[in-house]
Amino acid sequence: MLIGELSRISGVDARLLRYYEAQGLLEPRRGANGYREYDEDSVVVVRQIRALLEAGLSTEVIRAVLPCVRGELPEFDWCVDVRAIMDRELAIAEERIAELQRSRSNLAGFLGKS
């Protein structure tokens, strides 16, 4: 399928699909005419990328863990280093949450609210 069809099926703009390709997340073939050609599995890969982005992972982290992702949910095959990567990302997210909670507490204090 061409990029327009993948965009329509996945609901992801063609510019984002090209960005995913540039980031090494999506690998289309090139037809004789030079157009990007995607297989049916590309729809699942795009959905996996979207789910991992929604979880707050960077494209760099997604590139590292994507080979170990299965299904649209996605689920993980715990390949070498993937659990350590995900544990590190969870710790980073928890620290960001703690920082936001401190900021919220300070702002609420300025407003006389708890």
Kindly report the average pLDDT value: 93
Span from first to last CA? 55 Å
Biggest sheet statistics: 2 strands, antiparallel
Got a strand count?
4
Q: What strand order characterises the main sheet?
A: 1-2
Query: What is the name of the CATH class?
Result: Mainly Alpha
Gyration radius from CA atoms, angstroms: 19 Å
The geometry reads as elongated
* Reported CATH architecture: Orthogonal Bundle
The proportion of strand residues reads 5-15%
What's the tally of helices? 5
Helix percentage range? 55-70%
Q: Kindly report the CATH topology.
A: Multidrug-efflux Transporter Regulator, Chain: A, Domain 2
Question: What does this entry look like structurally?
Answer:
There is one protein chain. With 114 residues, the chain is mainly α. The chain has a single domain, classed as Multidrug-efflux Transporter Regulator, Chain: A, Domain 2. 59% of the residues lie in helices and 7% in strands. It has 5 helices and 4 strands; from the N terminus they run ααββααββα. The chain has a two-stranded antiparallel sheet. The protein has a two-stranded antiparallel ribbon with strand order 3-4. The longest helix is centred in the last third of the chain and has 29 residues. The model has no long low-confidence stretch (mean pLDDT 93).
